[in-house]
Amino acid sequence: MSKKHGGHHGGAWKVAYADFVTAMMALFLVLWLTAQDTKIKEAVERAFRNPFTAVTKESTGIIPSQGKDASATYKQAGNFQSVSAVEMETMRRISEDLAKILQREDRADNSIQIDLTPDGIRINVFDRTHKPIFESDTDTFTEYGAWVFSTLAWEISRYTSFRVELEGHTETHDQNTRELHGKWELSTERANAARRKLVTSGVDPVQICKVSGFADTAPMPNLPPSAEANRRVTVLLKLKDSILAAGAENDNPPVNNPTTSVNDSTSP
Asked: Model's pTM, two decimal places?
């Protein structure tokens, strides 16, 4: 018995219909754009030239940077031209996820600041008197501080493409509270305590490439050295391949082993 095969219906109409829909969409966009003012047209042009320049306008996170200060910071740091679309999308997603998670606990306390920079993501965790992350004058975490860094570790461990740098900072005091254990020691010990907490909470030790104490030599922009906000631990999530490779002026390979250092070049 011979089998009769039914004739196949042609699919050319689908291609033609798809072309028609695409053409109508393009026509709609052109008509919409021609009806807009000059400012919107310029913004659309900038978006097509570089879709990621918008992140240079402000930071994202719990404490956004304020207009001019943020722009000045980005001008000093460079631009985002060398960041790929995939890397930029990853940075955006991480910063947004962290902001959502940490804001549940932080609320209006302004204890955490997250900024996108040309190097990656900068996270400042402030040791405020009303909501400390360390016990006073020690490197022992409070319950809140341990929660913050455990949360950061959970997010960082999901993205092994980042290298992690940790910085400890203090504000300027009239006197050291401990005679032989001052701000240099304390800032370094707190940065190292943050390293230990990240590692024990899931971050691969290989990701951590630098741990430094800056004492009171690097205050927050536009704040006096004695301001409480200078007492903080900064977590830098730096892009491994593109930014570091492009910015290596001395052509030295990156160090894989983490180092602990005190940035005391100004001291004898």
From this structure: 0.63
